[in-house]
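Lab notebook, bench 4. The sequencing result for the construct came back, and we need a structural model before the next group meeting so we can plan mutations. Quick request posted to the team channel:

Model the 3D structure of this chain.
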Amino acid sequence: MNNPAQPRPGPDEIILTTPALGDRCSSLEHRRARLAAHVVVTLGPMGTADQHRQALWMEAWGQSYPMCQPCWQATRHVAASRRPSLVITGTIGSPAP
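Done. Here's the predicted structure in token form:
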């Protein structure tokens, strides 16, 4: 799901971008239910590999995921509670053509 045109987030950073028209949430359950993506979330490193117990979602670092509103809110909540220096950047608007 990684797009080379997507900006690369830094440590403890999440970049939000607008999903393409027709993008579905990347959650398998929500994709099957055909829930539309509200935002594309690109995750930076959430910790360090040598401290994997404190790190979040190491396999997702640098990857982009379309998410519906509930999935994005859950992701944001976990990241904000576990990564005190979290920075969320980017803008979202209407789905991109």
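The two ends are 18 Å apart (CA to CA).
Will bring this to the meeting.
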